[in-house]
Amino acid sequence: MKIICIGRNYADHAKELNNDLPEEPVFFMKPDTALLRNNDPFFLPDFSQDVHHEIELVLRICKAGKHIEPEFASAYYNEITAGIDFTARDVQQQLKQKGLPWEKAKAFDGSAVTGTFLPFAAMPENIAFSLEKNGQTVQSGLSSDMIFSFNEIISFVSRFVTLKVGDLVYTGTPAGVSAVQIGDTLAGKLGSTEVFRFAVR
Ligand code: ZN
């Protein structure tokens, strides 16, 4: 399986990082070794002093497809959760300045947290999600605030990359990203359901 992530999909987050709003989805990928599940602890990597949490809605692909039209895209995912796209912001900043790919900052082990998946059909039209750090809400978002919708993302990515069953699509983070420290507890909610809770070590 593969992990596809969308960058800059919420205007308030693009602004906090001084990024222009994209004219088309920006995407990058993580390897399957980035997955962190079952509330396993996250071990801070030694190559960064500034690892940020990015809470995101995560779709699970349930049907293989390529060149998917937006009006048919909703048939290609049937489960959703909240997850974290951990980002070594200091490393990413250096890579961006040099125009280099982001893998060193984005694809490291444990950088793709997923919570418990829930049936997409049970979700409301506008999906709320949030992240608590040590009991305080630090990020919250609504799917209606995405610049590119789920279906636009699926359609766009599938022009370049064939989607397969089990692939995950991280759909971007709202504002409020910040560094995590050893000893932090992170908990993610999808609506009012807690879908993950784990420690930073
Ligand atoms: Zn992200």
Question: Any overview of this molecule?
Answer:
The mean pLDDT is 97. The protein is α+β, with helices and mostly antiparallel strands and 201 residues long. A hairpin with a 2-residue loop joins β13 and β14. The protein is built from four helices and 14 strands. The structure holds zinc ion. Zinc ion binds at residues 5, 7, 54, 56, 85, 170, 172-173.
**What ligands does this structure carry?**
zinc ion
Oligomeric status: single chain
The domain count comes to 1
Class per helix and strand makeup: alpha+beta
Q: Give the SSE string.
A: EHEEEEEEHHEEEEHEEE
Number of helices: 4
The stretches of 5 or more residues where confidence is low (pLDDT under 50) are: none
Which sheet architecture does the biggest sheet show? 8 strands, mixed
What is the name of the CATH architecture? Answer: Alpha-Beta Complex
CATH domain class: Alpha Beta
**Estimated radius of gyration:** 16 Å
Q: What percentage of amino acids are in beta strands? A: 25-35%
Q: How far is it from the N-terminal to the C-terminal residue, by CA? A: 27 Å
The CATH superfamily turns out to be Fumarylacetoacetase-like, C-terminal domain
Query: On the 0-100 scale, what is the average pLDDT?
Result: 97
Shape: globular
CATH topology: Fumarylacetoacetate hydrolase, domain 2
